[in-house]
Specification:
Elements lengths: L1 H29 L2 H9 L6 H11 L14 H6 L2 H6 L16 H36 L4 H14 L3 H15 L14 H32 L2 H8 L4 H12 L1 H8 L3 H6 L2 H7 L4 H10 L3 H29 L1 H5 L1
Helix pairs in contact: 1-16, 2-3, 6-7, 6-9, 7-9, 8-9, 10-11, 12-16, 14-15, 15-16
Length: about 325
């Protein structure tokens, strides 16, 4: 098993390097520092002096991958945009944003509001969706199953913005049950998180429950389920002990997509509810054309996604004995 985990970790290294190279190409070759300067300065006719000054202040005046003006070979390779802006990301040295704030410190402080929102949504959503899908599979080919599928399709067809705006209007403006937006530290954060968590869970029921139902129905038709029923096991035991366990591998594969959001936050939810997390931080950086922040968040997102893939592979060994023996 240890060899299996080490092999998966080694596979992740070239993937992360490839993502970093693609990010570098998009930010500094496709979109050159001159283009970034013109967009940031926001003027139709920007003087070359202003562009040069903007680039020099941010270290974008260096050559891309090789610096022929330096004397030593080390400086020729390191005094470049690639090393200063891309390679340093592997050391989690993100530099400074346009307002001269340390991006690493911003990420550390904004990570906790994102976790306070994402973890309850992740856990409650998974429990609710799996339970609802099991009920539809348990009562398959009945009215409960039919109307459950209709409800899932209807909920899938509704935009996430409808849940956010509708929830704010109904629970905050009409009923005055919770604040419409904002955030507070400590235990006071609970009253601000109730509505975003509720909306996050409800918004994901449709697609997730319908997909889990399909997985459970596929498992129900297999031979081991018929053998369990022939032994006289109750249908509830068959569903929860056998069907659910054997459907965990595809469920875990889908869950990994959510893992980066546990740290990066939800872009829409945090923006609409005024939660100072990493999601709203990314949206604000895009609107302000803060390329250093956007580049850092892209790298962090890729790191967490790869970590999620590794954790998923490790979790496979817990639910599938064949992987352990291999």
């Amino acid at each position: 098993m240890l060899t299996y985990i080490v092999r998966r970790v080694l596979y992740a290294i070239p993937i992360l390097i490839g993502v970093n190279l693609i990010t570098f190409a998009l930010f500094f070759i496709v979109n050159t520092p001159e283009d970034m300067a013109r967009m940031q300065l926001g003027a139709k006719r920007v003087t070359p002096e202003a562009i040069d000054k903007w680039k020099a202040e941010r270290g974008y005046d260096l050559p891309l991958v090789w610096n022929p003006t330096e004397e030593s070979l080390y400086n020729k390779a390191t005094r470049t945009i690639f090393v200063q802006k891309s390679v340093k990301l592997f050391l989690f040295d993100f530099g400074y944003s346009e307002d001269k704030r340390d991006i690493a410190n911003e990420v550390k402080s904004r990570m906790w509001p994102s976790l306070a929102l994402a973890i309850p949504v992740f856990i409650l959503g998974l429990v609710v969706c799996v339970t609802f899908a099991l009920l539809m599979a348990f009562f398959r080919a009945t009215y409960l199953d039919f109307w459950g599928v209709v409800l899932c399709v209807a909920m899938m067809s509704i935009s996430a913005l409808f849940y956010i705006i509708g929830g704010q209007y109904l629970f905050s403006k009409v009923w005055n049950l919770v604040p419409i937006s904002g955030y507070a530290g400590g235990l006071d954060a609970a009253k601000f998180m109730i509505l975003p968590v509720l909306i996050g869970v409800v918004g994901g029921i449709g697609g997730s429950s319908r997909w889990y139902r399909t997985l459970f129905l596929e498992e129900i038709g297999k031979d081991y389920v018929r053998a369990a029923r022939a032994k006289g096991l109750a249908e509830s035991v068959v569903m929860f002990r056998h069907v659910l366990r054997n459907a965990l591998i595809p469920i875990l594969t889908g869950v990994v997509v959510v893992i980066p959001l546990l740290f990066l936050g939800s872009l829409l939810t945090e923006s609409f509810f005024g939660i100072p997390g990493l999601g709203s931080y990314t949206i604000d950086a895009i609107q302000a054309q803060d390329f250093a922040v956007v580049r850092s968040m892209v790298f962090i997102g890729s790191v967490f996604y790869i970590v999620g893939l590794i954790l998923t592979d490790i979790s496979y060994t817990l639910v599938d004995p064949r992987i352990r023996f291999e």
